[in-house]
Amino acid sequence: MKVILLGELRGKGGEGDVVDVAQGFAENYLYPNRMALPATKGNLKQLEERRHNIAKREEKRLADAAALKETLEGKSIKVEARIGEEGQLFGSVTAANIADAIKDQLDVEIDRKRIGRSQAIKMAGRHEVEINLYRDINATVAVLVGVDEEQVAAEETEVAEAEETAEATEEAAKATEE
After folding, report:
1. Which of 13, 47, 72, 75 qualifies as a cystine partner to 17, CB 3.0-4.6 A?
2. Mapping DSSP to helix (H, G, I), strand (E, B) and coil, where does residue 109 land?
3. Contact status, residue 110 vs residue 102, Cβ threshold 8 Å
């Protein structure tokens, strides 16, 4: 069944798009929630008349999302959590916790559904989290759980030094074998 979307529908399209959906989905979800109209001749004609306004709104949404990406990209936020032995958390850090921390620390309102974490964070440390701002515009934010930026940098330096030492030892062992 063809419908005209009245707003963005993740995975289907944006405002003004004519998409094909299941009849039950349209009748039981899209129409009652005023997210779509049936693609009749009259509605398609009205859509053509509204195309210019829809294009303006789309440009504004893209510009807002790009500006928001500039604000968020590369930033770090700190999330407090109770940490047990070996860095294991009591509980977990969810998308809602991350959204609240972004609002508190960066003063930016993000819908928790747009935070792309397939699983909750259950270990202390630095975690990269991707946020879908609008369609293909994504921003990456570092989430520090139970640590601060200096601790993460020190740990990364220690790991790099240990790897370099291990590589040097391997090279020395190979040189003595030859």
Report:
1. 13
2. coil
3. yes
Asked if 76 and 128 count as a contact pair (C-beta separation under 8 A), the reply is no
DSSP assignment, residue 83?
A: B
3-state SS string for 54-79: HHHHHHHHHHHHHHHHHHHCCCEEEE
Residues 17, 5 contacting (CB under 8 angstroms): yes
pTM score, whole prediction: 0.71
For the chain, domains (ranges, CATH) are 2-71 (3.40.5.10), 73-177 (3.10.430.100)
Amino acid at 7: G
Spatial separation of the C-alpha atoms in residues 24 and 32, rounded to whole Å:
12
Strand partners, 2: 20
| Residues facing 33 on adjacent strands | none
